[in-house]
Each structure stands twice: as structure tokens, then as C-alpha cells.
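Lecture 7 notes: from sequence to structure.

We start with a single chain of 201 residues. Read the sequence below before looking at the structure.
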Amino acid sequence: MGPTSPSSASTPLAPLPDDLTRAIERAGYYPALVGDVVQAALAGEDVVSHLVHQETTFDHDVVRRHITVLALTSSRLVIAHADDHTDDSPEHEDTATATTESVPLSAVRGVMVTHVVSNPQEYRPGSLGREITLTLGWGAVSRVDLVPASCADPDCDADHGYEGSIASDDISLRISADAEGEAALRQALGFARQLSAGIGR
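Now the structure, written as C-alpha cells:
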């Protein structure tokens, strides 16, 4: 019986770009696991830009870590999340979950960047502040904000129904130069620019 050719599932995937690998390693959250799930989700596509964001939260007496990796290719936005989970078994075994999602760039509905600027009266042109919140929407999560409608007459007590807005905010990341460094903020701004230029095609 002759040799069998390897299936596509066992074919080695193209390695991640060095700068993305270094960013995942710097974040320090199970880098081998995170790198593998991102690599699998990319399926050999070249990475145009990336953003790695690590966050630690406190839940009562439990410290939970969370990492988000955003990788932009010429046709897709790949999102990877990995989280700590508490295991209630007597052995208290550590558990992590890693989830990836692949969104066609044509489906990304919006890229919103909120710049937080301290002492705006002293703002220097081109500096863009030291903190941003990057919000991306592609329709997986929609939020409806309703408030009672009103009219301009302050003495009016009629029921004017409701008015509101529908917002899509599938992911929101806060990046601060003071907490994460100037390089992290520059990387996030560059990623937002490249993603904004690539959506809606």
C-alpha cells in the first residue's frame, strides 16, 4: 500500500508574522494556545494589520485574565478571544477557553474611535490624546436605546411615545498610553485606520 497524502487538516499552517507572535507573547496569556487558535483561524491568509489587547479583571476574590487578538487580512477580520474560567471540581483545574470568529470585511458595519483628551485647552495638533476606545460593529450584537420622546413645550404633559437609536457594538477595547504604553496606542490607531479603509468593499 502506497504512502497517503496528508489531509488539509493536518497540513502545517503558515506561521504568524513575527510582530504578531511577539505581541501575543508580550501579552503573556497562554501564548502558545492563543497563537495556535489565531493561526488556525487565519488559514494561511496574510495579516495586513493586527491588534493584541490583554485585560485583567477582578471578580470578588478571583483574578480573571482575558485577551483579544484582532487580525486583519485583505478580505476578513479575524477576532480571537481567550479567557480564564473557574473550575468547580475538587482539584480546581485551571481552564481556558479560546474562541475565534471570522468576519468578511464587507460585513463590518462600522469602526468607531473615541479619543479621550485630558486638558483639551492644551491640545497639540496631531497628538490625538493618550487614550482611545475602539468599537467595532458587524451585526452580531445590536443594542436598542429607547428614551421617552418629548416636545419643546415645557408645560406639555402629552405622551409623545419613545425615540431611540439602534447601535451595533460587537467589540469595544480601551487602549491607554499611560497603562499600556505609547507603542500600544500607536498600534491601535494604525489598526483602526487600516480596518476603516478596508470595510464596505
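Strands lie at 49-59, 62-72, 76-85, 95-104, 110-116, 131-137, 142-148, 162-168, 171-176. Keep this in mind for problem set 3.
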